[in-house]
Amino acid sequence: MLPVALPFLCLQPLVENAVKHGLEGKADKCHIQITAQDAGAEALVVIEDDGAGMDPGLLRRILAREVSPTGGIGLSNVDDRLRQVYGDDHGLVIETAVGAGMKITVRLPKYQPGVHLAGRLTPR
């Protein structure tokens, strides 16, 4: 299997989000799981936590940059960057609910013309 290009600093903010917002303040054991999956023409990177979760409506507003409750813009920046590099068919898929944790799936094409393994676009 050929390597898949993941743009620079796209994974770190998602894991940081799981630690900072999902697991912060939990008294019992917490888990974060990071997996990569082959999905046909795509590769999926999944970051899942069993933390606090959030209201899906609030999440939509954060991604639309209408509100930022903690001053952070990591999720929307990563989604914007993925869509800029790979097109609107790719980016983040986020599943969450209050008290149910969060699952973030990064959808990446296995091959994208002009994208190198370092995540840089080639000059035309």
UniProtKB/TrEMBL annotation:
Organism: Streptomyces haneummycinicus
Name of the protein this chain belongs to: Histidine kinase domain-containing protein
Pfam short name (any one): HATPase_c
Domain (Histidine kinase): residue spans on this chain: 11-112
GO molecular function, one term: kinase activity
Keywords: Kinase, Transferase
Gene3D superfamilies: Histidine kinase-like ATPase, C-terminal domain
CDD domains: HATPase_YehU-like
